[in-house]
């Protein structure tokens, strides 16, 4: 049997460059978790001060998610103008919006500013994750992209702790809480300076000399353009329609729908964590610390998923994860009044098993779509997911007020079970494939020749 030729990009060792890029790319998810969670503590002061009813409380809580929905469409811009430029611009917008929150006086002002915050975060998802995926070796791709989701829960946990501590400042503590997201954003902008452009994107645009220069800078003098084979380089066009073509529609539906089913209950629970815990009579008077513990459980759940994503495979892991999540949230819905042990078991099961979908949320769209639409795909599937998250977050306080915690969580269980059915029906397997092979939708039924299929397969070996 012929020995597979080593590819300097796909088979590269995990280097200090990969480490830095993973950390910098995790900045967006960290700030996402921070911004979406700090509002949960801030709302305990904002609601009475700005006289917010349940409708406005839900709108303020969901505003950043609506912005992320809008920002996801900027993935198309990322595919057109490049990853590197947008990598910094979006954080500058985030810094300005973070600081403006300090001076707001009405609920609608806060809604608009947090909408802008969400747009900048939503734009960063396709930018940072596409750049990370296109530099990552095949064996580390799942871990590197999975780490970005861990960063989300780190940001969420930190936000709850910071928010609870800041409450001692006084009745205007919420202004300092919301503006505090500017601090990590400024640090990340400075760290991201000098990050190279994706050589795959450069090659796709026909900029071969620049692509080769980046390859040699990152991987050494032996690197060549043969190490990043890009089908139809310089010819394939960025287009929304490709995501809904025969070859990719199934993948678009899979990623968007499982992503939506995962985050709709989750974001509502994180955004209104203190209120939810009060409904269960847990951590009363210290809801911020209780919410931090739950967020930390979500973080812990991501750790085994980082290792299992290659061991079990993408498909099996996400199916098992959704099954476990469904059982966990079902317990929370069936036993709203205790016993406490059952309630805690429900929280732990839901949080731990959610690690699988969390890791796959950015790994799947980056693996399943080619270079010319990778950013677009991440953006569009993020938009689909946030459509559900917006409604879940907006309706959560309304459900608590009108039906109570038990029925509200049963609705979340139904949504999660729907995610399980989606994964069983649509989830593909891409474990250990090169980025080219994983993102190819070619099959014997398509109009591409068998020669093209064999060529693509050999490049992935």
UniProtKB/TrEMBL annotation:
Domain Major facilitator superfamily (MFS) profile: residue ranges: 21-431
Query: Which membrane topology describes this protein?
Result: Multi-pass membrane protein
Asked if the keyword Transport belongs to this entry, the reply reads yes
Transmembrane stretches in the record are 21-44, 56-78, 85-104, 110-133, 145-167, 173-193, 252-274, 286-309, 316-335, 341-364, 376-396, 408-427
* Cellular compartment(s): Cell membrane
Q: Please give the family membership noted in the entry.
A: Belongs to the major facilitator superfamily. Sugar transporter (TC 2.A.1.1) family.
Q: Name the PANTHER family on file.
A: PROTON MYO-INOSITOL COTRANSPORTER
Protein name, UniProt field = MFS transporter
Q: Which organism is it from?
A: Alicyclobacillus fastidiosus
Lineage summary: Bacteria, Bacillati, Bacillota, Bacilli, Bacillales
């Amino acid at each position: 049997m012929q020995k597979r030729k080593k590819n300097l990009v796909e088979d590269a060792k995990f280097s200090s460059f990969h480490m830095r890029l993973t950390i910098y790319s995790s900045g967006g998810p960290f700030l996402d978790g921070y911004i979406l969670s700090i509002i949960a503590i801030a709302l305990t002061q904002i609601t009475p001060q700005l006289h917010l009813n349940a409708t406005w409380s839900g709108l303020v809580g969901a505003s950043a998610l609506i912005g992320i929905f809008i920002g996801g469409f900027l993935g198309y811009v990322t595919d057109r103008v490049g990853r590197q430029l947008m990598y910094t611009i979006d954080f500058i917008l985030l810094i300005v919006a973070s600081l403006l929150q300090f001076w707001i006086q009405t609920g609608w002002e806060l809604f608009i500013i947090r909408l802008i915050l969400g747009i900048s975060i939503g734009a960063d998802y396709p930018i940072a994750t596409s750049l990370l995926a296109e530099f990552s070796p095949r064996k580390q791709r799942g871990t590197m992209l999975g780490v970005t989701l861990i960063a989300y829960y780190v940001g969420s946990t930190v936000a709850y702790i910071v928010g609870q501590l800041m409450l001692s400042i006084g009745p205007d503590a919420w202004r300092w809480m919301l503006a505090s997201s500017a601090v990590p954003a400024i640090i990340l902008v400075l760290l991201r300076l000098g990050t190279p452009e994706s050589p795959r994107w450069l090659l796709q645009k026909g900029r071969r000399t620049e692509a080769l220069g980046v390859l040699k800078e990152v991987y050494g003098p032996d690197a060549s353009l043969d190490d990043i084979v890009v089908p139809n380089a310089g010819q394939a066009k960025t287009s929304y329609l490709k995501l809904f073509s025969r070859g990719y529609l199934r993948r678009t539906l899979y990623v968007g729908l499982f992503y939506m089913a995962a985050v709709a209950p989750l974001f509502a629970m994180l955004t209104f964590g203190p209120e939810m815990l009060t409904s269960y009579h847990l951590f009363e008077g210290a809801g911020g610390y209780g919410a931090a513990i739950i967020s930390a459980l979500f973080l812990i759940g991501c750790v085994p998923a980082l290792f299992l994503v290659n061991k079990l495979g993408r498909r099996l892991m996400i199916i098992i994860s959704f099954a476990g999540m469904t059982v966990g949230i079902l317990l929370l819905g069936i036993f709203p009044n205790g016993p406490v042990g059952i309630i805690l078991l429900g929280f732990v099961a839901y949080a731990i098993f959610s690690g699988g979908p969390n890791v796959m949320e950015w790994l799947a769209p980056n693996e399943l779509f080619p270079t010319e639409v990778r950013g677009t795909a991440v953006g569009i599937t993020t938009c689909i997911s946030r459509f559900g998250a917006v409604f879940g977050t907006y309706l959560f306080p309304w459900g608590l007020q009108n039906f109570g915690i038990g029925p509200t969580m049963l609705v979340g269980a139904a949504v999660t079970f729907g995610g399980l059915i989606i994964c069983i029906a649509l989830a593909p397997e891409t474990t250990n494939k090169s980025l080219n092979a994983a993102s190819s939708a070619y099959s014997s039924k398509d109009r591409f020749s068998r020669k093209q299929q064999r060529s693509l397969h050999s490049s992935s070996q």
